[in-house]
UniProtKB/TrEMBL annotation:
SUPFAM superfamilies from the UniProt entry: Metallo-dependent phosphatases (SSF56300)
Protein name in the entry: Metallophosphoesterase
GO-annotated molecular function: hydrolase activity
Gene source species: Phocaeicola coprophilus
Transmembrane portions of the chain: none
Origin organism lineage: Bacteria, Pseudomonadati, Bacteroidota, Bacteroidia, Bacteroidales
InterPro entries registered for this protein in UniProt: Calcineurin-like_PHP, Metallo-depent_PP-like, STPP_CPPED1
Every Calcineurin-like phosphoesterase domain range: 36-206
């Protein structure tokens, strides 16, 4: 008799999802100054609602890629990640996933790393740099470098001259219980060093909010959970962007 543990690391199906999809995004949007993307978050355990979100995005069309800001799982179980990956693979466009606080439970971070990739990563879409960060400091007892300023410093040192704008994605926003709020203002100072910081997106709070946390004009857009059947859509134009809440 063979027994399987819910927290094992023997992944069934596709791995390194983010890397492959980033290649697709960067190739498709190379040289473009206008594009649209969607933000979805906190799909944990709401599989039917996530399938409906995927169907809605495919039916409405007009988006170039999707950013999932984390909490694919509720308990960090391998099967949760695999199920979410399989649903998101139904998208007609590429997607990337960030690490959420629930994704860190048990062996969740290791499963996330194998299926999706590193928890801090970046990619370019046209002339826009997307920075995707692990901000779940509480899950690591504040013992790890979260947010990872060394990662941001390396990005700054190796910026392409073609980058004109920057968008930052994370799971837990500043001043949430997950964020390392001792360095919240330092975090914002780092982000503002990047070219043309447009806005930030995050999830975790299971609500729709728009916050100017630092009173500096940089807006943080929170995406709600799949249970509430809504996602965000952003359209980047050359000199502005449009923001929309899409209910499905």
């Amino acid at each position: 008799m063979i027994e399987y543990h819910p927290y094992d690391l023997d992944i069934d199906g596709e791995t390194e999802v983010n890397a492959r999809n980033i290649q697709r995004i960067e190739t498709a949007l190379d040289g473009k100054k206008e594009f649209s993307f969607a933000v979805i978050s906190d799909t944990q355990r709401w599989y039917d609602e996530t399938e409906d979100a995927v169907a809605d995005m495919n039916e409405k069309g007009g988006i170039d890629f999707v950013v999932h800001t984390g909490d694919l799982s509720d308990f960090g179980m391998k099967l949760e990640f695999e199920k979410q990956r399989d649903i998101l693979n139904g998208l007609s466009v590429p997607y990337v996933c960030l690490l959420g606080n629930h994704d860190c439970l048990a062996t969740g971070k290791e499963v996330f790393n194998r299926i999706f990739g590193e928890e801090n990563f970046s990619f370019t879409a046209g002339d826009v740099l997307f920075i995707c960060l692990n901000t779940n400091a509480l899950e690591f007892d504040y013992s790890d470098a979260i947010p990872d300023f060394s990662f941001l410093e390396k990005l700054l040192k190796n910026l392409s001259p073609d980058i004109r704008r920057t968008i930052v994605a994370m799971h837990a926003g500043p001043y949430s219980e997950q964020f390392n709020n001792n360095v919240a203002r330092v975090f914002q100072l780092y982000l503002r060093q990047f070219p043309g910081l447009q806005f930030c997106v995050y999830g975790h709070g299971h609500s729709i909010q728009v916050n100017d946390f630092f009173d500096d004009g940089i807006l943080y857009y929170e995406c709600t959970c799949a249970k509430k059947r809504a996602y965000l859509r952003f359209t980047l134009k050359e000199n502005e962007y449009l923001y929309e809440v899409v209910n499905y």
